[in-house]
């Protein structure tokens, strides 16, 4: 048992089973949903577990539907595990028009394609993926229901004690990545109006599991004795299972104009305090650098809690699992979040 006496996650299989376990709300939502589900960008960090959750929830709801996963699938492991879970695989380079045209029809689409890291130096590709591609998808799936992933990066920085940006706040993106993500939203908004396509936009801030996320980045720095910058000193974190569940339940709120939802953890977490807590768990003294700015990129997730309930996994539980995982030499995806960034350059 880990520090808090709760369940232990020892293997990748146990982790991915937990990350794809549907809540009762997801089972009920997908039980009412008519037709097949197609997940575009299903090979990313969240895509495989969200897709498997959709399949598991559909089966538990007694709905006979195709759940399809479209991606280039650079990871054969993800592809084979999705197939073993009963998900249909569609290989696609979304920037190839012929491959895009050959995608199967589906009345329910989850759009998860995006580019963040590597944006600096590849601004043209970033805008093409994040803002041009959504227009092609919105036209192709004009008669579908779409859940489109966005990011809390579309908001401006807010005071730490503000409670975070809400869905009705005006966007204030910093940097080209954040601007291109707002472009994605605006393109879906435009075509939703033109075609009457029901859309839900998911502003995620930010998903965490044991192999990646802000909490993982801080924990690894503590464990390895690396300096931890606290200049951007506060953040939100939501367990990936909870994020997957909220996104799939948002099919039920899809509308024209689009329904916008923040998916974020309820705690405003301090980088400094999180590092100190990891230090206590791991028996290491964190190396802290800098001073906290009075504002940060923070989202208010209360609307999602009212609709679907609060996340089931607390920040403390995430930290306990992560600390144990890292001290046991658990696998890492190896994609740092660059949580320290304040200028929007990724």
Report on this model:
The chain is globular and about 55 Å long. The protein has helices at residues 12-19, 24-32, 47-60, 76-84, 97-101, 123-140, 175-195, 214-224, 240-249, 271-282, 302-308, 315-327; strands spanning 37-40, 67-71, 88-91, 108-111, 145-151, 158-159, 199-205, 207-208, 227-229, 234-235, 238-239, 259-264, 269-270, 287-289, 295-296. Strand 1 (37-40), helix 3 (47-60) and strand 2 form a beta-alpha-beta unit. Helix 2 (24-32) packs across helix 3 and helix 10 crosses helix 12. With 346 residues, it is an alpha/beta fold. The chain has one domain: 3-Layer(aba) Sandwich (Rossmann fold), CATH 3.40.50. The model is unreliable at 1-5 (pLDDT under 50). The protein has twelve helices and 15 strands. The strands form five sheets. The protein has a seven-stranded parallel sheet, with helices on both faces.
């Amino acid at each position: 048992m880990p520090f808090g006496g709760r369940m232990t996650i020892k293997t990748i299989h146990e982790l991915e089973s937990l990350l794809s376990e549907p809540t009762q709300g997801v089972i009920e939502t997908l039980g009412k949903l008519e037709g097949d589900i197609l997940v575009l960008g299903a090979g990313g960090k969240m895509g495989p577990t969200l897709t498997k959750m959709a399949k598991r929830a559909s089966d538990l709801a007694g709905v006979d539907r195709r759940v399809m996963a479209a991606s280039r699938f650079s990871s054969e492991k993800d592809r084979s595990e999705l197939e073993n879970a009963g998900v249909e695989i569609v290989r696609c380079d979304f920037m190839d028009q012929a491959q895009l045209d050959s995608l199967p029809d589906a009345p329910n689409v989850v759009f998860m394609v995006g580019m963040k890291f590597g944006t600096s130096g590849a601004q043209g590709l970033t805008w093409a993926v994040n803002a041009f591609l959504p227009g092609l998808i919105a036209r192709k799936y004009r008669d579908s229901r779409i859940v489109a992933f966005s990011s809390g990066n579309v908001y401006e920085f807010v005071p730490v004690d503000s409670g975070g940006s809400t869905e009705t706040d005006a966007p204030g993106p910093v940097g080209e990545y954040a601007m291109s993500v707002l472009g994605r939203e605006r393109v879906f908004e435009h075509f939703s109006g033109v075609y009457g396509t029901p859309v839900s936009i998911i502003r995620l801030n930010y998903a965490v599991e044991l192999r990646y996320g802000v909490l993982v980045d801080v924990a690894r720095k503590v464990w390895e004795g690396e300096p931890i910058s606290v200049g951007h000193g506060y953040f939100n974190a939501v367990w990936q299972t909870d994020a997957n569940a909220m996104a799939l339940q948002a099919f039920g709120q899809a509308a024209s104009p689009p329904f916008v939802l923040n998916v974020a953890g309820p705690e405003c977490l301090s980088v400094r305090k999180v590092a100190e807590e990891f230090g206590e768990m791991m028996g290491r003294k964190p190396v802290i650098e800098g001073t906290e700015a009075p504002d940060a990129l923070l989202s208010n997730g209360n609307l999602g809690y009212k609709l679907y309930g609060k996340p089931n996994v607390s920040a403390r539980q995430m930290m306990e699992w992560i600390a144990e995982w890292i001290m046991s030499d658990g696998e890492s995806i190896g994609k740092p979040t660059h949580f320290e960034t304040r200028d929007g350059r990724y």
